[in-house]
């Protein structure tokens, strides 16, 4: 049965969707072209190497086609004068894979046990010169002739395997089509087809009965009427009885009996035994199999043609190609091949198939289609159920939930909401099933096509599809092992049918077969397979419970004797869980539940009832609902080893122990609970309701999380609020729902039981939306003030159109009875301005988009007054300005003769200026929006009508919906293929809109579908370079970190706060409940668990209130509390829990502890208070499920990198290492808290990249702690200064690390790894017993480590990112964390129990503290510190500092301490230090602050809080350490600078300096001076010995890309104590704007500026004598300029087109040089070309000595092809570098991309590469030592390689945390300088 879908044949290219290359792969030169002979698209495979140019089916070799047809039909054509190869892998019934290959490259037949090679003889067209010449040839094999024909090859796999290998065919595994050939398609079938045969001819000849069928049209080539198919094409059947040589070859036969003969039976013919010469060796007998074939028959003599036939002039065609070459064709009607040579390279061009005519066609005809493909990608679906709400499953690992949503099955990650989709069903999914391992997923659909699909869960690939039931498939159950699948549906007679499928082979060969099936008259609602036996099942239904068993291929059942309970509706059934060693596996209990509340325990072996229990609701609930005496109507149940969970019609989910004595836990939902399922660990319960909600109940914490809310009816409209990122939908389920556009989580839910909303529109700028109802009422709501603004009832019909004007000054509405209304949207009551009757066409089918408003707001268009006209009116007066007659504009339907009518009307964006109209005849008409002139007409946009239209803001793309699909079009319709089609909807789309930011497309119908628009191009930034922050729909881009050049905020409202802090402390505000916020009549009571946040029960009861004294609130707080009732004891305990997004998870028990005022712990449950937040509450996750990056600078974000540390490296022992790290220049300003200074001991530690530097401030000596592989984010030191912890994040396969260092021994004692991403905080407790680590925003985890053995004591997670954490030094086991969204969490480490746990309390934050003047940005707490008077100081990202009482966890005052984000606060001895992003360091006096916490004395004392002093630094403050009095300290900034601060003397001294951005170049002069330049535009001069920055030149808004010292006399190396001031030479530097600047270091000034390049300067150097400056640009031009005049004297363009990567100049005169000039220099470019020049600039002489081009593959290191047209392809290749050798005078040292990773040594005299040295990685930089035979090579994988010049041996050195970009030896080769991003390492050479 599993092969039914393959009958009668399989179109392989269509089955694998070859044009999209998703399930197939292509390599090399594979192009899709249009072939004129067969009038269709074919794939041309060309290339000199067949193995490198091919099409592979399927995509991966590990995959299998699984096609069982024994005949394969290949439609192809060999390319003339070329070879081709085809490989076919087939599987035999004994699971042996055999490769069958045929090619015209093979000379004879060869065979092994797993490989058959057949020669292919190319046939020549009959009557051609080539065919007559070939008839006299003895050699029939070889290249294809000059004229070839399209061929259909039919190969019988069964015959081939039986004849040659004596094996039986099972299935086709894969096909590889190699160059050179053209292929149209491949088919497989069990039928034998004959081309050119009609049904009538086959009947007359009696061929149908013999198994010969006419070839279907898809498998054949076209032939015109009257033409003979066999005269145009070739048909080859193999094997056949052909006797032509060579034997066992595939060749065309002229014998009609062979071509059309039918074998007498289906089995292969037996051949007569042949004589075998056993004297030959076995290999000869195997390989020369043609000698044991059929004995040679008598050869027929063929008449040899002695002369060529005469060709008349009429048969000759002369054509001329584009180059002017003339070609003569003897047969102009046939296709020919032209061979040409490239006139530049001399290489032969690709052979192109040409059709004769007046001019030759181009080689590669291009067919333009819509790009990218696909242009839409489904991102998220908001919906659950559709056909059934009974199925919702957990995966085996408990990380994902699976549920159906109409025609799509969704797998959603619980932790981040990421969704995967299983798309393929054509109707709504009615049931799903998952095997125990979670590898196979089965889904079935409703309707007449009850197809069952089996998916591979990990990949989402459909492995098999079967259709056994006629309709009404409603239950699926997988066995635990996945080898059996059970399904229940109905047959064609309406009887219940149970089918058991064998799915054991579905993963191997996609085979699914029916094991057994049975018909039954009894009702079956649910059926499940036993986990212990795949052949046992149990079912339940109305009035029956039956046990089933498959035995001997028969499915038999036995009913359970129900006795008095036989008249009962059973709803669900499940088996007893767990394994019992003392019981028989079949001795199990089956649980069944019913609508009356009965739970049955059924003995499986005895087939009888064991226990019956009736479950009743709680008495107090029953009394309220008046249900005493009735049981629970149970819908679903799930059982594990301990509990049984049930869902019932009363909306409760109840957790029972297996004895059902009492309810362990219950949770109320909005509607009936229809689906329940336990996770694998039994700690979580998944619940689904008939109201479309999905939720997860955590049993351990009693926490409930709603993961999905959805409409239960069809969605008729959607509107978007772009500024507040809200969207609203209206549905036929009588609800209006408001969603968060970022997360697609529901915010508000309005219910109107008596009125159905049908249209909605958001105000373009205000938080207001208008809604229209089917009753004709139009209501306007203000979401911000939670009130109804207006209500209008002038319409009498259903609202079919509702729209605001683009400016928001008018509102328009239309109803189905033809009236049109205009409202004044600027008035408070939305006054009705004008009402027109009988204006819009009377029809309900136009809704909800019957009105279209032009983008400029001047015109309104609608269909009316008849369906044949479109009317355009003035937007302010509704006066008609234009009327378009659709019936006359659109051509009539020629078949029906009906007039065309309008269906939809839509205004295109203003830059297009079109009015779009869709018609009943499926046409799209484009009119000029001003004149009404018809511009274009596009027909057949959809088959059954277009339901909605949308145009992108740019006007480039059009989206239409209809036929349950979405089409995206090229708006201009100028492509060959103008649209792409996307499936997923099971119903027609109601409305489709582009999101305001253009990144997504939103379609609504049966659910909400959010699509990623892949063609989105972000807008270019403004000229000022500021990043435009996109705050619109639906997700943020990556937030840019606030730089050091942040501008001061406006001081409009902040001045008063800066001058003096407020004197009266603000009190935390507690919000009132929603019930007291307004007086709304007849509202339904709020529901407890499942009710939506902000739900309004009845819209019809809302009335407009004009009196300001009356309340008019219609929306309730979105953070409504939920109650979960426990019934473990007689009286229930109630725990009030915040929504899951606002409370951090705790590992303690469900009762959380907090500290009382006297610091005593009480075992009382917390009553969490909800709070109203001003501004935007931050979303912790984006719509894709990814966490949102914090916007504050305090939170550590690792620098982006492309390469990780090389896993393969060769490091030498320390005593044999060629270099050792001597010193490091730089400090990582990207870290946070990555500096330690102890004022008593003088210990000074800071980080640079992945290295920890311990520096002695007195001597300047550095020691290094090296153990991290990634960038160190933060460090912490114990209070005794003996142990330090450092943290780094993860990258690639490298995990995050916490290294524990012994500072006395300077060794790593332990490496801890727990966090998945970066680590932002580390802190030791006051007694050094505990260490806390905090993960970044991606996991927000807190881990408590024991410092005794550094094992994890406890962990916890928060839902918002943590920015800072500190232990309370004055309390035991208490700490505080602050972070995203204004969260302040007070933690207690509880050691009173066996297991250490964390208790947490979230403090109330004052509303005033969360307000940000003049902005709605998110307020985040950034830094904290404790003082000794029970006061905690917390800073914010808007410059405020707040003071908190740690005894009550309350805020008692705050003030504005800065005008930008405060990154750190330090409090000591009544003083407070603040450091901000605004580069400010401020000292505050805290006199009398602690006295303000008393309610009796809230005012500030005189002379209290004052700012003592202030310093301005060079960047944002990121780290600081001060003494106890805050007089002295060290501060680190984001500019990579460490400052020594002395407040009494107001002194700031720079201790460490470094570059901020990536260093591009380095140059040294002598051994003591070093110059570097970077992307931040700075050129810095360093003193190597002291590591101090001596000088800095900076050019704003430009990158300094390269530099070089001028030649000068080096200082003498004498031992005299007198230090003579060294006169440094000039430095020349190149910049990104093409300028070259020369600096005088001694005078500290710029002496020259030139502009020799139009693009960025990429390399620069002085000539050997210093007379010229040689610079190379990124465009390949080399400029030679004079440093004295600034004139460019010469421009060399030999390298044009590729960036110059390196310029090297010899420093000594080459006496042995054969050229006349004495000095040599070279230049390298990115295209692997090296030019060597000889020059004498005194004589203005420059001559090319040698030109080198190094070969490389045609693909990049990652496997992608190198594009010569793309300029960025050079950036992806390894760097090309060359240096003059210092050891050999005529040798160049070269590294770059090539055939191998190696260093090449090229001799200028011998003109060849004399030797190579292998490398393990592609090089990124190179330098040659001057005084010792050493080479230094840097690689992107962060290694520094030291290579022996002569031997090629090397050593690897690690330490850098990014790609090594620059290497240079010092002048005496005693030091090696290496650069990675902004860090400079100085290595001491020891060899």
Structure characterization notes:
The chain is mainly β and 1887 residues long. The chain is built from 13 helices and 136 strands. Strands 2, 5, 7, 8, 9, 10, 12 and 17 form an 8-stranded mixed beta sheet that branches. The chain is globular, with a radius of gyration of 41 Å. The relative contact order is 0.04.
List keywords for this structure.
1887 residues; single chain; globular; mainly beta; 8-stranded mixed sheet; 41% strand
List the helices and strands and how they pair.
Elements: E1 9-11, H1 12-15, E2 25-27, E3 29-35, E4 40-46, E5 54-57, E6 71-78, E7 85-92, E8 97-103, E9 110-111, E10 115-121, H2 129-135, E11 151-156, H3 157-164, E12 169-178, E13 181-189, E14 192-194, H4 199-205, E15 212-214, H5 229-232, E16 234-238, E17 250-251, H6 256-260, H7 282-287, E18 317-320, E19 326-329, E20 335-338, E21 352-355, E22 376-382, E23 393-394, E24 400-405, E25 408-413, E26 419-423, E27 429-434, E28 440-445, E29 452-456, E30 461-466, E31 471-478, E32 484-490, E33 496-502, H8 506-509, E34 513-520, E35 526-529, E36 536-541, E37 544-551, E38 554-559, E39 570-575, E40 589-594, E41 598-603, E42 608-614, H9 619-625, E43 634-639, E44 643-648, E45 652-657, E46 665-668, E47 673-678, E48 684-689, E49 694-698, E50 703-708, E51 715-721, E52 726-731, E53 735-740, E54 746-751, E55 757-762, E56 768-773, E57 778-782, E58 787-792, E59 799-804, E60 810-815, E61 820-824, E62 832-836, E63 851-853, E64 859-863, E65 869-874, E66 880-885, H10 886-889, E67 902-907, E68 914-919, E69 923-928, E70 934-939, ...
Parallel strand pairs: 8-10, 10-17, 11-16, 14-15, 54-78
Antiparallel strand pairs: 1-13, 2-5, 3-4, 4-13, 5-12, 6-11, 6-13, 7-8, 7-12, 9-10, 18-19, 20-21, 22-77, 23-24, 24-25, 25-26, 27-28, 28-29, 29-30, 31-32, 32-33, 33-34, 35-36, 36-37, 37-38, 39-40, 40-41, 41-42, 43-44, 44-45, 45-46, 46-79, 47-48, 48-49, 49-50, 51-52, 52-53, 53-54, 55-56, 56-57, ...
